Structure formats: structure tokens, C-alpha cells
Amino acid sequence: MQELEPTWGRAAAVWWLIFWRSLLGAVLLGAAIGFVFGLVATLLGVSASVVRNVASILGAVIGLLWAIVVVRMALRKRYRDFRIALVPR
Q1: What is the DSSP string of 66-80?
Q2: In which band, very low, low, confident or very high, does the pLDDT at 45 lie, cut at 50, 70 and 90?
Q3: pLDDT digits over 63-77, tens only?
Q4: CA-based angle 60:66:70, to the nearest 5?
Q5: What share of the chain is helix, strand, coil (3-state, %, to 5)?
Q6: What are phi and psi of 30, to 5 degrees?
Q7: pLDDT value of residue 30
Q8: Is there a contact between 36 and 72 (Cβ–Cβ < 8 Å)?
Q9: The whole model's pTM is what?
Q10: Residue 15, helix vs strand vs coil
Q11: What's the CA gap between 66 and 19, in Å, rounded?
Q12: How far is CA 83 from the centre of its chain?
């Protein structure tokens, strides 16, 4: 298997995919899950400070899990002139 140099352009292509998909997914998932959690917690009478604290932790966990999904997407994607391959040593 021929290896290509990890040029700045290739690195930027991978970074850009990870960056924008992570940002967009985190915002959308965070908004949707935060809304549902906040609504349910408020209806159950949970205080606003507890809702904020739990929502912050929940958002961080969801963001980390989403980031793993995005990295997997980046590994599976076929870029214009390359793809990322995991090969054994």
C-alpha cells in the first residue's frame, strides 16, 4: 500500500470534516436533548440551578460521544485524493 505525505491540505481536509460535523452535531443534539431534559425536569419541579448543572454535564457527555462518531465518519470517508486507512504494524 502506497503512503501519501500528510500535507497541510490533507490535514486541513480531515480537520475541517471533524470540526464542522462536531460543531453542527453538538449544537443540534445539545439543543434537542437540552430542550427535552429541561422541559421534563421543569414539569417535575426540579430547580433551575439543578437543571443547569445536570444539563451542562449531559451536554459534555453527549459532545464527547458525538465526537467519537464524527472521528469514525472521518476514518470511513473517501476524500478527494485519499482515504484514511488503519493498518496493522
Answers
A1: HHHHHHHHHHH-B-S
A2: very high
A3: 899 999 999 999 999
A4: 140
A5: 75, 0, 25
A6: -60, -45
A7: 86
A8: no
A9: 0.80
A10: helix
A11: 12
A12: 20
